[in-house]
Amino acid sequence: MSPAIFAGVVAAAIMMGGLCIIALIWWALAASQSRHLQRRLQPGSETPNDFGDSTTNPLLQGIAQQGKAIERALDNEGVSSDKLMIRAGWRSASSRLIFYTLWFLSPLLFVGGFFLLIPLLPIKLKTTLMLVLLGAMALIIGLLLPSIVRTRLAEARQNRMSAEVPLFIHVLVLLFESGLSTRQAFASMVREGRGVLSELGKEIELVLRQVEAGAEISDVLTRTAEALDVPDLTTVLALLRQVERYGGEVKEPLLDTLQVMEDRREMELREKVNLISGKMTVVMVLFFFPALLIFVAGPAYVSLIGALGGAAAK
After folding, report:
1. How far apart are CA 225 and CA 158, in angstroms?
2. 138 with 110: CB under 8 angstroms?
3. Three-state SS at 216
4. How far apart are CA 168 and CA 297, in angstroms?
5. 3-state secondary structure of 194
6. Quick count: other Cβ atoms within 10 Å of Cβ 40?
7. pLDDT at 11 over 80
């Protein structure tokens, strides 16, 4: 069997194994949700944990617990994993179950794939030392990749929420001008503005659920701001919390906050434009200017060389 065919077979086997694992996880979650609905119709239902309740597949719960243990062993930044999960939008028990299960399986898949690809390595890399180093590298990548992916997804979602804050302020101003309270404004956003505020709408809906359950709106806003860690949103929620607690005018402070945000973003855009202009200048000097010089001075240089060559021949 040629190396190309063998590599194709190995890649297909890895893909099929990954698809089988994903299908198994999906089937287990679907079955657990069905059993959970049946149990809720009966008295004595149990309290759910981080990865579901007693109806969830025990094997998946055990694997997820091992993934959680890997996270605790690698947590050196001091950032709470719960906050990272919230910032990434993974609040449900099923999301946590899938994430920590994949975290446990990730190093196994990377190391297993490395051993399958050993026959395709060059002869120089098949020494014992190089195999150990490459295997350790595959293991490290498998251990760190889920954490990196989660952090990047959380940062991307934070950026999307930050981009929605100006529209969130405009909608709040319109609703407050209509005479609505903070709770009523949030309810109107959840009911009618779900498609406009794709990310903030989900967080507002969660805030509204907690408030309807009996929690103080100021406390809920404080916890939401700390969990999401979006500076612009934190400023707006702090303003709403202050107005909710002490009363007062809310329209003018919101508009002033919006103006400050727009001024800051304008300055950031100008800085980016200046950086892009500098990079474009370097590109033009390195690539465009030499081509232009050849195009403009090339014919004169060729003519001059031809004239000098003719004079020397005479």
Report:
1. 12
2. yes
3. coil
4. 58
5. coil
6. 11
7. no
Average pLDDT in the chain: 79
Written as one letter, the residue type at 232 is D
Partnered with residue 52 across adjacent β-strands are 49
Tell whether the model's pLDDT for residue 4 goes beyond 60: no
Q: Would the pLDDT of 272 be above 60? A: yes
CA distance 195 to 172: 16
- The DSSP bridge partners found for residue 49 are 52
Query: In one letter, which amino acid is 83?
Result: K
What is the 3 state secondary structure string of 266-312?
HHHHHHHHHHHHHHHHHHHHHHHHHHHHHHHHHHHHHHHHHHHHHHH
Nearest to 169 by CA among 158, 184, 185: 185
Token digits for 146? 């889920």
Give the list of residues 6+ apart from residue 276 with CB closer than 8 angstroms, or none. none
| The dihedral formed by the CA atoms of 6, 10, 15 and 19, expressed in degrees to the nearest 10 | 120
Residue linked to tokens 């949030």: 186
**Secondary structure (H, E, C), 23-89:** HHHHHHHHHHHHHHHHHHCCCCCCCCECCECCCCCHHHHHHHHHHHHHHHHHCCCCCCHHHHHHHHC
Q: How far apart are CA 230 and CA 226, in angstroms?
A: 8
- Dihedral sign for Cα atoms in the order 117, 123, 125, 127: positive
pLDDT digits (tens, 9 = 90+) for 242-258: 888 887 788 888 889 89
* pLDDT on residue 47: 39
Whether the Cβ atoms of residue 264 and residue 272 lie closer than 8 Å to each other:
no
Return d(Cα 215, Cα 228) in angstroms, integer. 19
Torsion of CA 288, 292, 293, 296, to 10 degrees: 180
- DSSP label at 256? H
How many Å apart are CA 219 and CA 113, to the nearest integer?
Answer: 49
Q: Residue for token digits 């609703």?
A: 175
